[in-house]
User: What shape does this take?
Amino acid sequence: MEILLREGKKSDMPSVLELIKELATFENEEDAVEVSVEELLRDGFGERPSFKVFIGEIEGKIVGMALFYERYSTWKGKSIHLEDLIVSDAYRGRGVGKALYTKVMEYAHQRNIKRVSWEVLDWNQVAIDFYESTGAHIVEGWQVVHMNEASLNKFVSNT
Assistant: This one.
């Protein structure tokens, strides 16, 4: 079984959205996905793309993806945020996730990126064990903070 890794293209976005929805189901957040194929196309392939995506294929079928974007750390400088690394349930345990993860890390290394960061759910021990086995450090004591659209709208309208 050969895993083909490549940069994502416009025609991949319906499959990318399906993988995103599959991840949401895995994380018990089935109704949380709001992004559309149109938004992925606009935001990933416009004049100033907001993200890059690597695709993992087996026998011509998209079975995984790693979506990330560059950002800037005031402490470290150039960094990357790995938003999601997703492998379709039927293909987990076959090396697709590790191959995509490695592709992102190689991309960062080649560009002299100082840090790659991402979140992992505290109950996803398989992922935690994998990340730690690669030398990644799980940062204790930091909490992820989100301001959702409704809260953002309320906050701005009250200021």
